[in-house]
Amino acid sequence: MMLYPSLKQEILEEKNNDPHVKKVLELFSEPFAKPLASAPSPRFIKSHLPITLLPPKLLESKVVYVARDPRDAAVSFWHMGSSIRTMSFDGDFKTYWNLFMKDLLYWTPFFEHLKEAWEQRNNPNLLFIFYEELQKDLKGVVHRVADFLGKTYTEEQIIELCDHLNFKNFKTNPAVNSDLLRDIGLVHDKHEFIRKGKTGGWRDYFDEEMTAQADKWMEENLRDTDLRFPH
After folding, report:
1. Helix, coil or strand: residue 65
2. Nearest CA-CA partner of 195 in 163, 161, 167
3. Dihedral angle sign, alpha carbons of residues 131, 109, 171, 153
4. Residue-level pLDDT at 26
5. Which CATH architecture has domain 45-222?
6. Which family is this sequence assigned to (predicted)?
7. Is the peptide bond between 109 and the residue preceding it cis, with omega within 30 degrees of 0?
8. Cβ atoms of residues 35 and 44 within 8 Å
9. By three-state DSSP, how is residue 193 classified?
10. Which residue among 20, 97, 112, 115 has the highest number of C-beta atoms inside a 10 angstrom radius?
């Protein structure tokens, strides 16, 4: 992530050159590879990049890939694009959806990203899970991830972790809710970075035409694969 120079200066001026804000902005202006290379092992790294844009030896490490229904993903992406000042999309969702399907947005194309990971689902170093599984059976997925990482936890620890990951608690966790980004002005005050976390919420945004478009788009992109989204 590299901040646009003009936006960086704008934030500094708004915050009156607050030294804390300046330090954080300088951190975000540095390439992420440098601090990652010096971080002690084992390291946890989150990325939205597709496998082909990550290091060639990626799958020599453990990788957990989380997939989501593209309709819900598009809604979530639209809200995020509207909330972050480096993106600041101010159009309606229908316009955004058409851009999303045509692969004209950051982090698209969606299906190429997804199918790259699906093709590696039998690799012993990749665990492919669906966001919908997390919603339906969080405890079961926690056990699967622990087994995948070679970790053993007591039942009490699993219960405690599931409570920590419960969306109600997750939403209020400052470590994931971008409180710092809001404090330094990268996230608009009126937006929630962590919103609802539910599945099937796309139905509140799609009209009949968009639903038909989505059905056709998904069918065309899944035609050459056995990948299917849980519903």
Report:
1. strand
2. 167
3. positive
4. 63
5. 3-Layer(aba) Sandwich (3.40)
6. Belongs to the sulfotransferase 1 family.
7. yes
8. no
9. coil
10. 97
Q: Please count the residues of the chain.
A: 231
pTM, two decimal places: 0.79
> Could you read off the pLDDT of 92-147 as tens digits, one per residue?
899 999 999 999 987 889 999 999 999 999 999 999 999 999 989 999 999 999 99
For residue 119, the one-letter residue type is E
According to DSSP, the residues that pair with 6 across neighbouring strands are none
Task: Give the span between the Cα atoms of 202 and 76, in whole angstroms.
Answer: 9
Catalytic residue among 48, 143, 164, 191: 48
Taking residue 102's Cβ as centre, other Cβ atoms within 10 Å add up to 11
Q: Could you confirm whether 48 is annotated as catalytic? A: yes
The strand ranges marked E within the chain are 63-67, 126-130
Q: Write the single-letter amino acid at 104.
A: L
CA dist., res. 71 & res. 101, Å (int):
10
Token pair listed for 205: 């945004």
CATH 3.40.50.300 domain extents, the chain: 45-222
Mean pLDDT of the chain: 82
pLDDT digits (tens, 9 = 90+) for 53-99: 998 999 999 999 999 999 999 998 888 777 776 666 778 899 999 99
Local structure of 169: helix, strand or coil:
helix
Contact 167, 103 (CB under 8 A): no
**Cα separations (Å) of 23 from 7, 29, 30?**
15, 10, 11
